[in-house]
Amino acid sequence: MKRKFVHDKISIRELLFNKHCLSNIFLLFHYSVLNFKYSISTSYVSLMFPKRGKKVVFKSIPHILYPCLNVEIGNNVIMGYNITIQTVKGSKIRIGDNVTINDNCFITSLFGIEIGSGTSIAENVSIRDFNHIFREKGVRLKEQGLEGDNIVIGENCWLCRGCVILPGVTIGEGAVIAANAVVNKDVPPHTVVGGVPAKIIKTIQ
Length: 205
Hints:
This protein is of the alpha/beta class. It has two helices and 21 strands.
């Protein structure tokens, strides 16, 4: 039977005054160094993202393929390590409030991507609103151009590790995308989808 996790905060007193006090002192130091590192990264990256809310944390400097002045970030957003963000003139990425984007995610837009408030995105997720055109035999792939459409991810969604969101997809509020799923069509609200291509597994009651 699965158990629900309840997060209990640990006080400084509890950390210092127990049999593992030396290890805990080291962990406190390590945590302080990480917080300092996050503050440096966040201060530097904030210059790249002028349209951002309060309490936006970047754990590392993201890979920027093009200037990201057309990226809007809401309040209380956490961005993990090694994230790649791409926009071009005319496209836009909008990230709502209370969104978490974990390590090694790739978010790239030629048209438009919207991520709703409260959404959690796990590691190694790819959100790309365009693809190569490959319909003409005998014509080089790079000469055929690109095509795509906007991606909309609703509020309070969970995109699990390694899933891929393809162009033109709308994911409804409260939906869950299973690990390694490839989403090539719209996902109804409050459903769980998985597989390649993704199909509905269950409805959340």
